[in-house]
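hey m, so remember when u said the tokens were messed up on ur end? i reran from scratch. heres the input so u can diff it against urs
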Amino acid sequence: MSLLLFKIAVTPLLILGATLLQRRFGGAIGGLLTGLPVTSAPLSVFLALQNGPLFAAKAAVGTLLGLIGTAGFCATYARAARGRRWIPAMALAMAASALLFTLLARLPQRPLPAAFMVFPLLVALALLVGVQTAVPQMPNPWWDLPARMGLALAAVLGITAAAAHLGPTWSGMLATLPVLSAVMGGFTHRHAGPAAARSLLRGIIVGCLGAAAFNLMIAVVLGRAGIALAYGFAVAAALLSAGLAHLLLHARTAARA
């Protein structure tokens, strides 16, 4: 019940914060924050406290692999948004993500092989999406933010109800289902256009590099160190990885432009 209450309390706040930062600083920053483990990190802490460090470490491997599904959703949506409206683009991205999650669940759940696959793929997908340097700002309707928060909360509650019966692998993977990416990407595309959506979605993929570093650290360290120390190292790794990736990929984009 405590995990359910946590989800109910924190999900709308995460959407609120990421949306306000997106509007203030642009889609790339809002996407970067959305891609970071803002939901999977607290969920991992709850799993460690309620089910033990071994369960949480195994779930972290599932989350690490599941980030490919999230990034695949973002990359597919970003590419499809160039020539389609938001509903067809969303449908294609969801289909690609569902296929990826189905395949990922069949892979060996070992942290280092997963990391050697996840990090290069995330970088490649971020480069594939590309980004437009100047994205026009557009006004949002009054119901935009409440609708984002409500849709995200409804989806996360459904995922939470299902995850309790599926064990560590699927508990970890379900934490990476692109709920926030879909809500924010769809609304951004609908009201600000495909260029703004691509900027947001690329930012999410870059943020996923931070989430990957976090979950790799948990999968490797949690069984060897205390909970507080392991999560402290993981948070530091996430922020450092996402920050460096943002700076390097932004510099590469600027140089190519």
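this time it looks ok to me. The chain is about 80% helix and 0% strand. if urs says something different then somethings off w ur setup not the seq
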